[in-house]
Protein backbone atom coordinates (compact mmCIF):
# COMPACT_ATOMS: atom_id res chain seq x y z
CA UNK A 1 0.00 0.00 0.00
CA UNK A 2 1.56 3.31 -1.09
CA UNK A 3 -1.42 5.52 -0.23
CA UNK A 4 0.00 8.84 1.03
CA UNK A 5 -2.47 8.85 3.94
CA UNK A 6 -0.65 5.83 5.34
CA UNK A 7 2.57 7.82 5.74
CA UNK A 8 1.51 8.85 9.23
CA UNK A 9 3.44 7.03 11.96
CA UNK A 10 0.52 4.88 13.08
CA UNK A 11 2.52 1.78 13.89
CA UNK A 12 1.46 0.08 10.66
CA UNK A 13 3.85 -0.83 7.87
CA UNK A 14 3.12 0.87 4.56
CA UNK A 15 4.95 -1.72 2.49
CA UNK A 16 5.27 -5.47 2.28
CA UNK A 17 7.26 -7.94 0.24
CA UNK A 18 6.21 -11.54 -0.18
CA UNK A 19 3.52 -10.99 2.44
CA UNK A 20 5.92 -9.77 5.14
CA UNK A 21 5.73 -6.18 6.39
CA UNK A 22 8.64 -3.87 5.63
CA UNK A 23 9.18 -1.49 8.51
CA UNK A 24 10.38 2.03 7.91
CA UNK A 25 12.51 4.58 9.69
CA UNK A 26 12.15 8.37 9.51
CA UNK A 27 9.01 8.23 7.40
CA UNK A 28 10.38 7.25 3.99
CA UNK A 29 12.59 4.22 4.67
CA UNK A 30 15.63 6.03 3.36
CA UNK A 31 17.90 3.84 5.45
CA UNK A 32 16.53 0.70 3.79
CA UNK A 33 17.87 -1.08 0.75
CA UNK A 34 14.56 -0.58 -1.13
CA UNK A 35 11.83 2.01 -0.74
CA UNK A 36 8.97 3.68 -2.59
CA UNK A 37 8.99 7.47 -2.88
CA UNK A 38 7.61 10.14 -5.18
CA UNK A 39 9.81 10.77 -8.23
CA UNK A 40 10.43 14.32 -6.97
CA UNK A 41 12.35 12.83 -4.03
CA UNK A 42 14.81 10.91 -6.21
CA UNK A 43 18.16 12.07 -7.53
CA UNK A 44 19.64 10.05 -10.38
CA UNK A 45 23.29 9.34 -9.71
CA UNK A 46 25.81 8.49 -12.41
CA UNK A 47 26.75 4.82 -11.87
CA UNK A 48 30.41 5.82 -12.25
CA UNK A 49 30.21 8.37 -9.41
CA UNK A 50 32.00 7.37 -6.18
CA UNK A 51 29.33 6.62 -3.57
CA UNK A 52 31.50 7.97 -0.74
CA UNK A 53 31.36 11.38 -2.46
CA UNK A 54 27.79 11.50 -3.79
CA UNK A 55 26.31 10.47 -0.46
CA UNK A 56 26.19 14.17 0.47
CA UNK A 57 23.67 14.76 -2.33
CA UNK A 58 20.91 14.50 0.21
CA UNK A 59 18.05 16.70 1.23
CA UNK A 60 20.37 19.27 2.82
CA UNK A 61 22.42 20.12 -0.23
CA UNK A 62 19.48 20.07 -2.63
CA UNK A 63 17.30 22.09 -0.24
CA UNK A 64 19.81 24.94 -0.11
CA UNK A 65 20.53 24.80 -3.84
CA UNK A 66 16.82 24.76 -4.71
CA UNK A 67 15.92 27.52 -2.27
CA UNK A 68 18.55 29.81 -3.78
CA UNK A 69 17.89 29.06 -7.45
CA UNK A 70 14.08 28.79 -7.25
CA UNK A 71 13.10 31.20 -4.47
CA UNK A 72 15.85 33.77 -3.84
CA UNK A 73 16.72 33.83 -7.57
CA UNK A 74 19.85 35.98 -7.42
CA UNK A 75 20.85 37.57 -10.70
CA UNK A 76 24.32 37.64 -12.17
CA UNK A 77 26.49 40.18 -10.37
CA UNK A 78 24.29 40.44 -7.26
CA UNK A 79 25.35 39.91 -3.67
CA UNK A 80 24.01 37.09 -1.50
CA UNK A 81 24.34 36.42 2.24
CA UNK A 82 24.06 32.79 3.36
CA UNK A 83 23.28 32.29 7.04
CA UNK A 84 24.58 28.93 8.25
CA UNK A 85 27.26 26.97 6.42
CA UNK A 86 26.16 23.41 7.10
CA UNK A 87 24.92 21.18 4.27
CA UNK A 88 21.90 23.39 3.48
CA UNK A 89 24.02 26.56 3.55
CA UNK A 90 26.69 25.06 1.32
CA UNK A 91 23.97 24.13 -1.15
CA UNK A 92 22.62 27.69 -0.97
CA UNK A 93 26.09 29.10 -1.60
CA UNK A 94 26.53 26.79 -4.59
CA UNK A 95 23.18 27.97 -5.93
CA UNK A 96 24.31 31.59 -5.62
CA UNK A 97 27.57 30.71 -7.39
CA UNK A 98 25.71 28.94 -10.22
CA UNK A 99 23.40 31.95 -10.58
CA UNK A 100 26.45 34.21 -11.01
CA UNK A 101 26.44 36.12 -7.72
CA UNK A 102 29.53 38.32 -7.49
CA UNK A 103 29.68 38.34 -3.69
CA UNK A 104 28.58 35.47 -1.48
CA UNK A 105 28.91 36.30 2.19
CA UNK A 106 28.83 33.28 4.48
CA UNK A 107 27.60 33.85 8.03
CA UNK A 108 28.32 31.20 10.65
CA UNK A 109 29.30 30.98 14.31
CA UNK A 110 31.99 28.42 13.41
CA UNK A 111 34.89 30.12 11.63
CA UNK A 112 36.35 26.72 10.69
CA UNK A 113 33.57 26.35 8.09
CA UNK A 114 34.87 29.16 5.89
CA UNK A 115 37.60 27.17 4.14
CA UNK A 116 35.14 24.48 3.05
CA UNK A 117 32.55 27.12 2.12
CA UNK A 118 35.01 28.72 -0.32
CA UNK A 119 34.76 25.55 -2.43
CA UNK A 120 31.02 26.26 -2.78
CA UNK A 121 31.48 29.88 -3.86
CA UNK A 122 31.56 31.80 -0.57
CA UNK A 123 33.77 34.83 -1.13
CA UNK A 124 33.64 36.44 2.33
CA UNK A 125 32.91 35.23 5.84
CA UNK A 126 31.35 36.82 8.90
CA UNK A 127 31.31 35.24 12.34
CA UNK A 128 28.79 37.25 14.40
CA UNK A 129 30.69 36.39 17.61
CA UNK A 130 33.70 38.33 16.32
CA UNK A 131 31.84 41.65 16.12
CA UNK A 132 30.46 44.02 18.72
CA UNK A 133 27.48 45.03 16.57
CA UNK A 134 24.62 43.13 14.95
CA UNK A 135 25.65 41.00 11.97
CA UNK A 136 23.13 42.74 9.72
CA UNK A 137 24.92 46.03 10.45
CA UNK A 138 28.30 44.41 9.68
CA UNK A 139 26.96 43.16 6.34
CA UNK A 140 25.38 46.53 5.54
CA UNK A 141 28.77 48.19 6.11
CA UNK A 142 30.58 45.56 4.00
CA UNK A 143 28.15 46.02 1.10
CA UNK A 144 27.36 49.74 1.28
CA UNK A 145 23.76 49.23 2.39
CA UNK A 146 23.02 45.51 2.38
CA UNK A 147 22.96 42.48 0.11
CA UNK A 148 20.59 41.87 -2.80
CA UNK A 149 19.44 38.47 -1.51
CA UNK A 150 19.87 36.41 1.65
CA UNK A 151 19.21 32.77 2.41
CA UNK A 152 18.74 31.58 5.99
CA UNK A 153 19.83 27.97 6.54
CA UNK A 154 19.95 27.49 10.31
CA UNK A 155 16.34 27.49 11.46
CA UNK A 156 17.20 30.02 14.17
CA UNK A 157 14.62 32.77 14.59
CA UNK A 158 17.40 35.24 15.38
CA UNK A 159 19.22 34.30 12.15
CA UNK A 160 15.96 34.66 10.20
CA UNK A 161 15.57 38.21 11.46
CA UNK A 162 19.22 39.00 10.70
CA UNK A 163 18.92 37.54 7.19
CA UNK A 164 15.82 39.61 6.51
CA UNK A 165 17.35 42.81 7.88
CA UNK A 166 20.65 42.52 5.97
CA UNK A 167 18.93 42.90 2.58
CA UNK A 168 18.96 46.47 1.27
CA UNK A 169 15.72 48.35 0.59
UniProtKB/TrEMBL annotation:
Family matches, as Pfam families: ADH_zinc_N
Cofactors named for this entry: Zn(2+)
UniProt keyword list: Metal-binding, Zinc
Domain annotation Alcohol dehydrogenase-like C-terminal: ranges: 87-168
Cellular component, GO annotation: cytosol
Molecular-function GO term, any one: S-(hydroxymethyl)glutathione dehydrogenase [NAD(P)+] activity
GO biological process: formaldehyde catabolic process
Keyword presence, Lipid biosynthesis: no
Subunit structure of this chain's protein: Homodimer.
Annotated protein name in UniProt: Alcohol dehydrogenase 1
Species this chain originates from: Leavenworthia crassa
Amino acid sequence: NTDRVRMIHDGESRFSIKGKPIHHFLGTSTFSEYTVVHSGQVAKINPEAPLDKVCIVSCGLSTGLGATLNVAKPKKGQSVAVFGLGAVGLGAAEGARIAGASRIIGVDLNSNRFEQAKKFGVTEFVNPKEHDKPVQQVIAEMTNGGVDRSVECTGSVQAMIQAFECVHD
